[in-house]
Amino acid sequence: MWRDAHRRARKLLTFAVTEADGGRDLSRAAELTGDPLLRKLFLRHSEDERRHAELLRTRGRAMLAGLGGRGPAPFEARWLTPGERGGDDLRVGEEGDASLLAFLHLSEKTAAARFAVYSDVIADEETREVFRRILRDEVFHMRYTRTQLERVAPERHRRHLWLARAARLWKGYLRLATAVAGLLGTVVLLAQYFVVLPLFAFLAKRAARRERPGWSEPMRRAAGAALRSQY
User: Fold this and answer.
1) Among 11, 19, 55, 187, which is most exposed with the fewest C-beta within 10 angstroms?
2) Phi/psi at 81 (nearest 5 deg)?
């Protein structure tokens, strides 16, 4: 994917949307928490996400502008590469501080690993620098969420991390199952359209040809009765 400039630009814009959504979630989390330190950290985290979104959006648009009139990118299975939290469906109002920190820690850890890989494999130096800048923030986010989780829930932080991992695995399974179900549904519909419907059409035409040459027995009897009544 990263070898194609057009797909690379589109993916950067997708990441920008994900980062912006994450920033809004963290602003909401800062409003809801009763912990002053967490409020401060969430607000800083939210501002980092907003800045990441702007960096990614600016770079993606610059790349698209440089590509001129090239056509759209080919189909991508976006559910396979949801960015940082694109597929996790965070509901801030339903999470406590500890469970939210566990969720954020795992998300930031995943994001840091991905952005490190992206910065290594991309040949475009300007895009690599964008990922390097984001990676520095992601490492801080990964560390502060773990530290604060251990502070907020010193006896239960491992349990919260385990539950967060289980939830991510379950959501990943649901995304995969939904995608597979959609693919199978498409295959079944195509099979009905190209196999079943032509078969029924063929059988209907064959039945019509069999009945067309002569009259059926009830029709012959009715015709004979009509002729006899004339005499």
Assistant:
1) 187
2) -130, 75
Residue 136: count of CB within 10 angstroms of its CB: 12
Give Dmax over CA atoms of the chain in angstroms.
Answer: 111
- Rounded mean pLDDT, 64-68: 82
Residues with Cβ < 8 Å from 8, sequence gap 6 or more? 1, 2, 63, 122, 124, 127
Task: Read off the pLDDT band of 54 (50, 70, 90).
Answer: very high
CA distances from 45 to 13, 21, 144, 164 (A): 20, 12, 10, 20
Predicted local confidence at residue 225, as pLDDT: 63
Provide the token pair at 210: 């069999």
CA dist 34 → 72, 143, 188 (Å) = 47, 21, 52
Residues 156-195 have pLDDT tens digits of: 888 888 888 887 776 766 767 777 788 778 877 777 777 7
| DSSP secondary structure, 86-147, as one string | TTT---GGG--HHHHHHHHHHHHHHHHHHHHHHHHH---HHHHHHHHHHHHHHHHHHHHHHH
Return left, alpha or beta for 89; rule: phi > 0 is left, psi -120 to 50 is alpha, else beta: left
Contacts of 138 (CB under 8 A, 6+ apart): 84, 108, 111, 112, 115
12: its two tokens? 């950067």
